[in-house]
Amino acid sequence: MSDKLTLPLISAAPPPRWNGFQPLEDAEVWTPQGAYNPAEPEAPLSVPLTPTASGSTELLAPAGGLDAGFAAFHFGADAIYLGLKKFSARAEAENFTIEEVDEITAYAHSLTPRRRVFVTINTLIRQDELAELIDALADIEAIGVDAVILQDLGVLHAIQKYFPKLALHGSTQMAVHNGAGAKALQKLGFERVVLARELTFEEVRDITAAAGIETEVFIHGALCYAYSGLCLFSAQTLGRSGNRGKCSYSCRESFEVVGAPMELRDGSPVHRDPTNGFPFSMKDLALPDHLPALRSAGVSCFKIEGRKKSPLYVATTTDYYRRLLDGTLDDADRPDIEADLQTVFSRPWTRLFIQSHKDKEVADRDTVGHRGAPIGKVLRFENGKLRFRTARPIERHDGLQIDLPILGKPFGFPIDHLWLVEGKKTREVFEAAEGALVEVGVPPGHPELPAGAPVYCSSSQDVKKKYRHARPKPGAFHTRAPMTVDARLTAEALTVVAQVDGVQMTQVLPGPFSPAQDLRRMEETVRATFDRLGDSTLELAELRWHNDAAGFVPASKLNALRRELVHKLEAKLAEDRSRRLAQVHAAIAPAPAKFVGPLRWSLKVDRLSFLDDFAAEDFEGVDELILDITRPHPTELRERLEHLAGALGKDRIRLALPALTRAWEDKPLRQKIDRLLADGWTKWEAANLSAWPYLGLDPTTKSLGIDLATDWSVYVINRLAARQLIDMGVSRFALSPEDGFANARSLWQEFGARAVLIVYQDTPLFLAESCAYANLIGGCPGKANCSFESMEMQSESGEKVTALDYHCRTIVLNQGAFCLTPRLGELRQAGVESVRADFVYRPYAAAEVRERWRLLRAGRAIPHGHAANWSRGLL
Question: Terminus-to-terminus CA distance in the chain, angstroms?
């Protein structure tokens, strides 16, 4: 008997649907943007029979705006995540004002069972935005949101130091992809980590079991080509940073391979033309059949992507996964529900790497954008009429799309005219039933629509009607602070003391008072009076009534006292908040500029051979040589390091850990680290938070034995992030290559030599597990047959990039290097002390490294170099 089984869906009582509120206007308008290729059936994931977790897994839905938030709760979300008008990784979504966050949070907390609201502050924060950040954190702490999802370590620093009531969730933008990274977040005080989407089930299970922190996993929605948080394509080429929520979605463009066509190693041609297509445009993630295994693994939260999507999308996806989780979706009904969801928005579905990191058919090579639900094929097209047999009911004003790969995107249009074909006659109708032979009018300017082309329903009036939902009356909900009231009546006076969060106010009503005829009724009157707080920001949490005089106070006087007391208390609370905020603003102000010392040069390489042609004078004045230990064989690495130590001294050599270490890379990396630590190497560089556990360090304390620096991928865009890293024992930190001059200058002027400016680098635009070559040819040929090492490519916008293979991981570089050395004089005048040149990723010849290094040291330009955002700044 097998010791494995496919887990059934775990049933639970569905949450109540809310009702009794005014219905939304049918204002949902959906413009067709693409078409849909139906996903191939995916086998459910098998997991060990022994259960690893029990209890309910939270269903977390996106809310790009208020309507989407109410739709999510109506259709069964346990929680929503939303962004503010600023600091959101979906800056182009509708997003929320503070007043709207207040409304949706108060509403969520009023539901039974209580629902939760998470606020995303998951972008990198510039120096000039820190004051706004502090104000925003103060607002959402006062509202009582359930957690903040963050990327920037400066936000972590601000919350823990000044707003400790806020719970911390690590965003997927932090690129946490292994147990070491999750452990680092747990040590730093995070309650939950949103894991990288690229992980396999086994990795998710192992992290969840060992890291001591809640795990959150994406189960549906759009995918980035690169690891989230490690994509610099849009920023470096167009000045629109994905780390700032302003991604230009360059990955959705078509690319052409420049140069000779590629072949397999055996000389046989590939089964698809690899010269053009959409190698970086990912399919949409969909894991409906993997929920039982992930739940059994102990995952705390299932997350739906889509803050830029419509309320209708939120409604359909939330309803679909709610039913799956509750076990209330019959197998017979599931295809229809999935088709409804696909009419709203859907690219082809993929399970990505959940079953295996070797799965490579995850990109949408031929066509970009929304498809819809497949409903037929073109039978004929003539005289402006398209004939097909519809697989689902359709009606006038539905949207259709025709998949035409030759165009790179589907051709879409609304049904303005619909005819039912009956024998040799047709008649115009408003709607047609499933299975009907129909004709629809096609607008002018259409492309050729060949027979056999797939037809999709990309917008459905019927679906819009099915997923209407209610919302509360505007203004009906807002957050109120709990107030305790202590009221004592003596013969001389009624003294009322009200308190909120440590702030106290006293109001006295002088006597005398007549005797009460009914003491119980008097107490009820007092309680009713202080329960009526109207539009104030307060609510009565507790009232203690002491009628020592057995007296009577008229309701009119009680009401007047309450109004005056509440007014004064709210004013005092506002004053206290302003004073507290002023103190925080003062505390986060910049420190005095550091003394400017001599210029320090660092050199970073990831191949030992890059140094083969260096002469002794090339190392003169070099403060540090940084060596990425990932590529070299352990034996060669140790031998060459000993040689370099003899020539330079150990104190001038720093060993760098990689930004990515997946499960199959973990053991060899740990072995290297252990040997090198045993050999006495104490200077290290972190490219990910996982470095702390790998080196045996606690990120909450400063280590005396290790000198730790951080690379650019541990982002420092603001002084609070720098202060956080210093608190974590970091001696120096590399500034981000996507930053601009003004912001970076403010950092090196404040932190001096600690702030390292990268002046030369082949900046990775994408770091991805999805193979660009496999995406272009339509599948992975396998290691034995694959000759892919690099491809020169150009986008439809003219951007020229190089895609490199590194053990089936794709690294995409700009064809020209990031280079600031022609500005060295300006940089020195601006106070920079520490600069660094990186020769990593690109397979240079040793002589070329030497020549470029000499040009850089001399302040010379490099051919085809670029300055990215340096002049325009990070938007």
Answer: 60
Type and span of the H or E element at 493: strand 493-500
Long-range contacts of 397-400 (CB under 8 A, 24+ apart): 397/461, 398/457, 398/459, 398/460, 398/461, 399/30, 399/31, 399/32, 399/343, 399/372, 399/457, 399/458, 399/459, 399/460, 400/32, 400/372, 400/440, 400/455, 400/456, 400/457, 400/458
SS3 764: strand
Residue 212 CB coordination number (10 Å): 12
pLDDT in tens, 819-847: 999 999 999 999 999 999 999 999 999 99
390 and 375 Cβ atoms separated by less than 8 Å: yes
Q: In 3-state terms, what secondary structure has residue 304?
A: strand
- 28 pLDDT higher than 60: no
DSSP string, 223-279: --SSPTT---HHHHHHS--GGGT----GGGS-EEE-SSPP--TTSPPPSS-TTEE-T
pLDDT in tens, 208-265: 999 899 999 999 999 999 999 999 998 888 888 889 988 888 899 999 998 754 444 4
Listed residue (572, 567, 564, 563) closest to 501, CA to CA: 572
Q: Are 825 and 741 in contact (CB under 8 A)?
A: no
DSSP secondary structure code for residue 383 in this structure: T
φ and ψ of 777, to 5 deg: -90, -5
**Number of Cβ atoms within 10 Å of the Cβ of 645:** 16
In one-letter notation, the amino acid at residue 70 is F
User: In this structure, what token pair is assigned to residue 154?
Assistant: 């400066």
**Which residue in 173, 75, 166, 164 sits closest to 118, CA to CA?**
166
Residue 306's region, left for phi above 0, alpha for psi from -120 to 50, else beta, is left
Q: How many angstroms separate the most distant Cα atoms in the chain?
A: 106
DSSP state of 516: P
Which one, of 485, 284, 307, lies nearest residue 372 by Cα? Answer: 284
Residue 89 — very low, low, confident or very high, per pLDDT cuts 50/70/90?
low
Which residues, listed in sequence order, are joined to residue 65 by a DSSP beta bridge? none
| Cα(104)–Cα(80) distance, integer angstroms | 10
- Alpha carbons 789 and 225: distance in angstroms, whole number: 19
Q: Which amino acid is at 556?
A: S
Long-range pairs for 438-441: beta carbons < 8 A, 24 or more residues apart = 438/387, 438/388, 438/389, 438/390, 438/394, 439/385, 439/386, 439/387, 440/385, 440/386, 440/400, 440/415, 441/384, 441/385, 441/386, 441/415, 441/416, 441/417
Residue 339: both structure tokens together: 């088709």
Confirm if 173 and 143 have CB atoms less than 8 A apart: no
pLDDT at 272 over 50: no
Phi, psi (5° rounding) for residue 38?
A: -60, 140
Task: Quote the CA–CA distance of 281 and 754 in Å, as a whole number.
Answer: 39
Q: What are the CA-CA distances from residue 606 to residues 633, 655, 779 (Å)?
A: 12, 10, 30
Tell me the sheet residues that pair with 402: 411, 455
Tokens of 147: 């957690």
Locate 836 and state its tokens.
């660094």
209 vs 458: CA distance, rounded Å? 41
Q: Return the ∠ at Cα 674 (arms to 671 and 678), rounded to 5°.
A: 140
514, two tokens: 């007549």
